[in-house]
């Protein structure tokens, strides 16, 4: 049981190198879906494993065993390792809960402030212009979706570049990329190894919007120029938008510009399928290990309650 519970805690480290290769081998949209799904499953299995350690440790104590209507305290293999593992798991869950709560509250306040600010500016369709000298532009989710841009950003771009920038932001809203970014941020706060995966997901969302905008505009060089100029103009400005709100200047802009200017590569189907299979296998193995260990804990509880034979 100990080995099965440890596996979901170790497997997220295997996602880190795969996340770096995802955008090289997979299309941005495919990478976005696979990386986000793998990160969410890995984070959920991490929490389940930590919870199983805590529950197992508590039910070994007579007090909690009686509260759980156990005839005798829970018996497990490698019993000497369970108490310290339970203490460490309880600490990790406490830190995780505190971090998640603080992030959720901060982001909720930032989102409400952004929506309120967007509601004060002039609106033309889905476009909202804020009177600010600080160049910024981002896709704001909600009902309705908004493309928020400051007057400082509008003055930094010519007419064609503005349309390219708007196409990029509309691609974010059309693709629902804020959902992926929320999931990535939450997952990264459940396991430290998922931080680089979150960064890869953010880059995948930007690359997906870049490619979608290039398809709409029909000019990859224009999209690249608009992104580069917008990033250059906004590099000294500090945006107060929430972490899950995507913007054209988010992520490693030079890498995104290079991808837009390069000749689209022919994806090697075998390599792409192999990487996708590895991501899916890693998530499936983590889920299987977590589910099997939880079933084992449940069976041991039933035995301790006298409801099942060993």
UniProtKB/TrEMBL annotation:
Cofactor binding mode and count: Binds 1 zinc ion per subunit.
Peptidase M48 domain mapped to chain residues: 129-184
Protein name: M48 family metalloprotease
Domain of life: Bacteria
GO molecular function: metallopeptidase activity
Record field: transmembrane: 31-55, 271-291
EC code(s) of this entry: 3.4.24.-
Organism this protein belongs to: Streptomyces hokutonensis
Family from the record: Belongs to the peptidase M48 family.
Entry-linked PANTHER family: POSSIBLE SENSOR-TRANSDUCER PROTEIN BLAR, SLR0241 PROTEIN
